Amino acid sequence: MAVTISDVARAAGVSRGAVSLALNGHAGVGNQTRQRILNTAKTLGWTPSLRAKSLRSAKAYALGLVIAREAKLLGSDPFFPSFIAGVEMTLEKHDYTLVLTVATEPGAEERSYRKLADGGRVDGVILSDVRHDDSRIALLSGLGLPAVTLNRPDTPSPFPAVCMDDAVGITAAVEHLMSLGHTRIAHVGGEQAYLHGRSRRRAWGNALTAAGLDADLFAEADFTAPGGVAATARLLARKNRPTAIVYANDLMATAGQSYAQAHGLNVPGDLSVTGYDNAQFARYLNPPLTTIAADPLAWGREAAAMLLGQVKGTHDGGDLVLRPPRLVLRGSTAVVPKHVAAVAEDRSQISTAGI
Amino acid sequence: MAVTISDVARAAGVSRGAVSLALNGHAGVGNQTRQRILNTAKTLGWTPSLRAKSLRSAKAYALGLVIAREAKLLGSDPFFPSFIAGVEMTLEKHDYTLVLTVATEPGAEERSYRKLADGGRVDGVILSDVRHDDSRIALLSGLGLPAVTLNRPDTPSPFPAVCMDDAVGITAAVEHLMSLGHTRIAHVGGEQAYLHGRSRRRAWGNALTAAGLDADLFAEADFTAPGGVAATARLLARKNRPTAIVYANDLMATAGQSYAQAHGLNVPGDLSVTGYDNAQFARYLNPPLTTIAADPLAWGREAAAMLLGQVKGTHDGGDLVLRPPRLVLRGSTAVVPKHVAAVAEDRSQISTAGI
DNA sequence: GTGATTCACTAGATCGATTTAGTAGCCGTC
DNA sequence: GACGGCTACTAAATCGATCTAGTGAATCAC
């Protein structure tokens, strides 16, 4: 920090320009002079000032991530920490760092993006938790800030996307439950304002209708444990209660499973349950939770790589599709209870007869 | 970004210096000139270039946090996301941002600190997960980087600390268990290289010996679920198995409880269990987990505030002690099983007689 | 009424690196 | 031996803000 390029120049008896050329491996200095400069730089313990570099090159050497979450919800989200670890895996190979902003209040999100963009604190941002008709797309293109989105927005977006299809996992979960004889399969979804809330619901609905079943047992929640409890309570209070519930994340599944057990239902004997995320605690629940394992680490790694490419102008602009999450079978799913199966059998005969 | 202070100066018909004075509210420009400058700046949409400011003021306007964790462990830690949210609560009020680095490999940690310090990317760092004889203290003072530590290191440290005493909660947990009649109370600790691993163990031991009980049922683990399982297995395999286990975090408690149940033990009927962290899922376990609720949000908020004070030279150098975590009673703890209580009674009589 | 002081403002240096334009010296060539 | 072309380097501008020194004009004191 204290030692600058001028100090090196003086010590080596050359001009600042020569030092710059030597240190950056550019042509224009003779070999012995270059060596002398390199040696003195090393001896003096010179390190480049990122601040000077930034000003000169009009680059921040940093990428941004804005997380919009209520503060108290953040601790229970298994996604972001792993995702960020993935981002770092890419960044540590380059001379970039991650600037993280948490927007805990609704209005704070836009302010956060402006804060990152205005002063030129970052060279680009990763857009996560994409929402239906997401206003941030327009905001960022207005700000002229390069970006990469996690999954493709449902509005026209100038930014490339790194995609991980959550439909595949949900479809697998529903099909798994159907193969166990379930016909009344409910879904507790996250906020439908989020694209991943929507796509999970859609996948659930499609899998059911493709099998000729009704997709009517839906309850919207908010990805939180209390929300999961409330949604589960609504579903179980129905006259035609589900025999299986596909939750949009592990936290809601955990809370829902706990609620069902507290009300005398055996899981999976009376009710099968699946989650999403494969949180580490999920396999230690009682029963262990059948869930869907995504790969947030890879997602972070690739998103950062794509954004770097975007910033450096080497990215071609195309989307990248990652390997989809896979179903992890554990003890929270089992064959449909016999008496229910019998009833379902009756019904299906009746409905078949009715056609 | 495109519009600079020179543009404003030209448009307002004054010098760059005058614009700077006006925009920063310094004396030296007349009132009407100041207004004119402010207006033109607003009209042109000028925002200060953080890069130029940084170079000029030799400040980064950013604080750093290095998280050293294996990538796959990060998703299950309820501490950091909340902690970071707390840090942001403080930073968003100032013109600072958080630069986050994740060091997933052992050697990467020092590199991370150097990366933050060398280029002058941050003005200070928060030192978390303080270890016994922590080498980072010397590293950071060598680098001349201001810092704040979470809890006071056990080596002389020039940095102020924000402290949250985890002994209080553990002591409360042990006393709670003793009040339920337990005498064979084990502890599954985290790595003893961490100060919070040590202090929790010490608190457990002290509480037991203060009550005249032996603190011999200790098993070291690593804060992970598999580690919790292994440690629990070792404890339960002892001839004189514990009737209660105090775990150093919720994840290990969850895994341990699950292991005990899988091996035919009723929790809390045969074995009482307590955790630490009050992770959101903990109250939805079966049974709900008795645990210790810290306040990582407040910790982050105060640590950031202290570091900012440190950086700006307004901090007095003293430590700050936050309110200690509190015990949250749930269903995983209950009175000691009768037959065990009888045996314990016998023993205590014998040992008393032996004195 | 003259010297001192204050006010409002400007010119230019500065932070640390990169880059452009230019120069001195050397070699080769016709 | 004059010129072109090359290498190895230097001086100075540049990025965008801030800070220092200084200037001209107005005001004040005695």
Give structural notes.
- Chain A is α/β, with parallel strands linked by helices and 355 residues long.
- In chain A, 46% of the residues lie in helices and 14% in strands.
- Chains A and B meet through helix 4, helix 5, helix 6, strand 2 and helix 7 of A and helix 4, helix 5, helix 6, strand 2 and helix 7 of B.
- Strand 2 (97-103) of chain A pairs antiparallel with strand 2 of chain B, so a sheet runs across the interface.
- Chain A binds a DNA duplex (30 and 30 nucleotides) through helix 2 and helix 4.
Number of domains of chain A: 3
* Straight-line N-to-C gap of chain A: 81 Å
Secondary structure class of chain A reads: alpha/beta
What's the CATH H-level homologous superfamily of the largest domain in chain A?
A: Response regulator
Strand order of the largest sheet of chain A: 2-1-3-4-5-11
Which two chains have the most extensive interface, and how many residues on each? A-B, 70 and 70 residues
Label the overall shape of chain A.
elongated
How much helicity do the residues of chain A have? 40-55%
Secondary-structure element string of chain A: HHHHEHHEHEHEEHEHEHEHEEHEEH
In what range is the share of β-strand residues of chain A? Answer: 5-15%
Cα radius of gyration of chain A in angstroms: 27 Å
Task: Give the uncertain stretches of chain A in residue-range form.
Answer: 347-355
Count of extended strands of chain A? 12
Q: What is the architecture of the largest domain in chain A at the second tier of CATH?
A: 3-Layer(aba) Sandwich
Largest sheet of chain A: 6 strands, parallel
Mean of residue pLDDT of chain A?
92
Number of helices of chain A: 14
Name of the CATH class of the largest domain in chain A: Alpha Beta
